[in-house]
Amino acid sequence: RLDDIVLLTKDIQEGDTLNAIALQYCCSVADIKRVNNLINDQDFFALRSIKIPVKKFSVLTETHVSPKGRPVLWPAHCSPEVQETSPSDKFSANETAGNFLKEVDRDIEQIVKCNDTKRENLNEVVSALAAQQICFE
């Protein structure tokens, strides 16, 4: 429904692609192209900013920086826990690996909490997968 869609504007940075933006904002490339009147993928590179359609109640409001220096966006209701460690901290390889795996576990828990697991959405997935399976038989 169009009532549930909000358009965010993002300044295009060097290295951004339609696919990367679509993945980052959980929308399809086709939706981004439609909203921005892009005929082909190359039209994207002529833009300085791009409009991104997102669901009204999943507007991304908090920005955090990923290890690559690119912003990582989180839904407003899903704030990740941030732990800061000073570079002078000395960990053994096992402690570092253990801490990394604990962080991965926390990230997975946050993703599970943030994802919409309503029954109707799960039924959509099941019916889509069942339709694909019928096509392959």
Topology record:
Blueprint: E1 5-11, H1 18-25, H2 29-35, E2 49-55, E3 60-65, E4 71-75, H3 93-114, H4 119-136
Antiparallel strand pairs: 1-2, 3-4
The biggest beta sheet is recorded as:
2 strands, antiparallel
Mean pLDDT across all residues, rounded? 71
Q: Which structural class should the secondary elements be placed in? A: alpha+beta
Reading the helices and strands in chain order gives EHHEEEHH
CATH class category label of the largest domain: Alpha Beta
- Strand segment count: 4
CATH superfamily of the largest domain: LysM domain
Description:
This protein is of the alpha+beta class. The protein has two domains: 1-79, Roll (Membrane-bound Lytic Murein Transglycosylase D, Chain A); 82-137, no CATH class. Helices cover 40% and strands 18% of the residues. It contains four helices and four strands. The chain has helices at 18-25, 29-35, 93-114, 119-136, and strands at 5-11, 49-55, 60-65, 71-75. The strands form two sheets. The chain has a two-stranded antiparallel sheet with strand order 1-2. The protein has a two-stranded antiparallel sheet with strand order 3-4. A hairpin with a 5-residue loop joins strand 3 and strand 4 (71-75). The longest helix has 22 residues, at 93-114. The chain is extended and about 50 Å long. The two termini are 33 Å apart.
